[in-house]
Amino acid sequence: MLTKEELLEAPEVDYMNEAQIAFFKATLEQLRQDTMDSIEAAKQTLANPPEHNDDADRAAYEEESRLALRIVDRERKLLPKIEAAMRRIATGDFGYCLESGEPIGIPRLLLRPTAELCAEVKAINERRESAYRDA
Predict the structure, then answer these.
(1) Tens of pLDDT along 70-127?
(2) Is 115 exposed, middle or buried (0-12, 13-18, 19+ CB in 10 A)?
(3) Residue 96's beta-bridge partner residues?
(4) What confidence tens digit (pLDDT) does each residue in 28-60 have?
(5) 104 CB contacts (<8 Å, ≥6 apart)?
(6) Is residue 71 within 8 Å of 38, Cβ to Cβ?
């Protein structure tokens, strides 16, 4: 298995070769498992609330629960993105921008292995979204 350093040092002609695909497949599988474990742990915590003897304890628990629910919601939204990335690996499209077809790039994929767009297209889309929100 390649290391992150080896991925970053690889020549451009090696982009998305078998070893790189294997690295990202393992990364996505681990991310999926970690995400599912985190969701399950949060569910268990929320399902078994402790008894509270005073208002301060109750308020602290409610705040922790609110944060846990936000995290669960964020991670729940991540699972379909992981599955989509795994499908792109299976079809040979992983690592390439869905809009331009250009390589997404190893540094971006290391930070966000579920990335579907290259940084340039993502920036353009974000500017468009910002313009619509501001209008």
Answers:
(1) 888 999 999 999 999 999 999 999 999 999 999 999 999 999 999 999 999 999 999 8
(2) buried
(3) 103
(4) 999 999 999 999 988 887 787 777 778 888 888
(5) 95, 96, 97, 115, 116, 117, 118, 119
(6) yes
Q: How far is CA 106 from CA 37, 87, 90, 111, in A?
A: 27, 18, 18, 9
Separation between Cα atoms, residue 103 and residue 101, nearest integer Å: 7
| The model's pTM | 0.84
Look up residue 81 and give its amino acid: K
The 10 Å CB-count burial string (b at 16+, else e) for 8-29 is: eeeeeeeebeeebeebbbebbe
Both tokens of 40, joined, read 């399950």
Q: How many residues does the chain have?
A: 135
Structure confidence by residue, pLDDT tens digits, 12-26: 999 999 999 999 999
